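Two proteins follow. First one:
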Amino acid sequence: MIPHDAITLELNTDVVEWCPTPGKQSWLAVGTYQLNEATGVREGRLYLFSLTAERKLELVAAHDISGIFDLRWHPRHDSPLIAAALADGSVRLLALEQVASWQEVCCTKQQPAAMAVSLDYSRHQGQEGSTLAVSYSDGTLQQLQAMPTSLVSLLHWRAHDLEAWAAATDHWQPALIFSGGDDCAFKVWDTRQGVGAPAWVNRRAHGAGVCCVASGPWQEHLVATGSYDEKARLWDLRNASQPLHIAEVATGGGVWRLKWHPTDPHLLLAACMHAGFAVLRADAAAGSVTVAEEYPHQKTLAYGADWCREVGAEGDSTVATCSFYDRLVHVWSPHIKAAV
């Protein structure tokens, strides 16, 4: 890997998200979470950084908020808008006011008994950003209608017996929602059929809790999952009633985050907790997924990872990652070249 920058923040860092909005793709949102031992309050701060031509981070804005577990930029919005899953159980939408400060637009009710731990915008063409799928620490999932100034609950249901660590939408089928939980279950929900029972569930493939799910944006029916059992897996969902587990790879650490590359359909970025970060090469046709490159930042837990949407003409990629207890945000490039 080729390092570009590293900065230390005031609170533990756990999520990074590059802005997808054209003209703003050098913007990086960073979320933090830390338990205040004196007060028992889970504190957080939302940062916005701008990446310079030299690939250094410059601070643009910071906003104190409840502890942040996950962030998602709106996939298609005239002005940048971000959704945050928070430790107080709420989901909040925030916009940038005159670029220099975050402005809270709206939020759902706080839930004292549950934390919002993951979320994902709908991404199906023509419906981008119309709904949010959210998972909670009490094992429930919620589908929210995302309007410019409000979030309205459409569905809220019991999805897992333990913490629901992951909620993800399907890039190709707007009715499908994926979830993963600490109960080792990977589930597919079809909202056209109701959510009284999953359309499909697998409880055997993962040897520990399912931490993340990522629908393939370049190939229909391809989905990746990450687990505490230190493996990333590929799934073929052409038969939605019986998805096929087609490949897996050991990463050396629990796979908390997986992100598909913005231009290369075969590359995945992984945050692997105690094993640092890795670039994976996935080939669904060959039934394989391998570790192509590693950034073994093993000083602390590797939680956040994302690809910058701006990719060089020769396939040079920029990555942001973050690690928890050392409060570091890293900007780097893998040696591997991406297809563009």
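Second one, unrelated to the first:
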Amino acid sequence: MDPPQERPEAPLSETPPVRPQAAGRAAPAGGDFSAIITVFFFFVVIFFFVAFQSSSTLSNNLTILHQVPEGHVGVYWRGGALLKTITEPGFHLKMPLITQFEPIQVTLQTDQVRDIPCGTKGGVMINFEKIEVVNRLHKDYVYETLLNYGVQYDYTWIYDKIHHEINQFCSAHSLQQVYIDMFDQIDEKMKDALQGDCTRYAPGIEIISVRVTKPTIPEIIRHNFEQMEHERTNHLKNIDSCYGGWSTVLISIEKQKVAEKEAETRKKMAITEAEKNAHVSKILMQQKLMEKDSARMQEEIENQMYLAREKSLADANFYRLTKEAEANKLKLTPEYLELRFIESIANNSKIFFGNKVPNMVFDQRLLGNFLRSVAKRGDAEAEF
């Protein structure tokens, strides 16, 4: 046997043989990596397009946990459609990028409408620097209001409406009326106008109050107003200095007018009170008369019922007695009378009369005579 031969070891520096590639199969290159980058860039573009539609809603779109502050309610949109879900204050969850969230205030809020130009009836241009509208959106009407007018509903029914109503008011009045005579009425007129349209078209909006600042008028006209007021004041002072106590007289006249008005007011109040008392007394008297009339009618009905009942009882008693009399008349026969005579004698335990007491009961002649006398008396009554 030959001795075992050792296999020579391969040198360490030799490289392993390269496996030949199959025909038609390309080696991996940088093309796959560029395709992945393209797809990733495409998704990033879509993400930014959805998420950055509005910079103000970025945090609301990205967050899952969101907070509704006190005095607000949370409303939600999904795909641009308003959801009916209304959340209370506190922490809530939503789907990011799909569901949008917006807090809506339902407590009192003040909207300030600034720089409202308008033209008066005489053609003078004035400007209301600021008008404050205190309003509130009722919680029960949040969905309906946002569905019809959006989140900026106050722009439609407060900001734009104030501009319209102020211009309507100015165009119907002169500068003197707007600036002085009727300025104290503008607040109430604006409030009534806003609340009327909101009640009709957006019932969830409540107008609490309206505060209107003094409008800005042209400098020349304002200077004229101030000069006229200064001249009027000086004129009154001159009159007072010329006529001495003329102001005191005017004050006395005004006090007298006030006293007359108060007396007239008290007189009207007294007349109104007397008319009210008379009306009440008339109503009470009619009530008492109706009660008496009702009691009288009730008593008449009771009397008629009693009379009918007594009449029925009397008729029944008369009928009973008549029938008893007829029955008794039919009973009056000799045989019945003989029976009654015998029963009456039998019921008497003692009879004391005559000399022939033992023979009285059996005396047929006595009994016969009695029956004949009774029959004759009955016939005589019948013939009569």
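SUMMARY FIELD: The chain has ten helices and eight strands. The longest helix spans residues 246-331.
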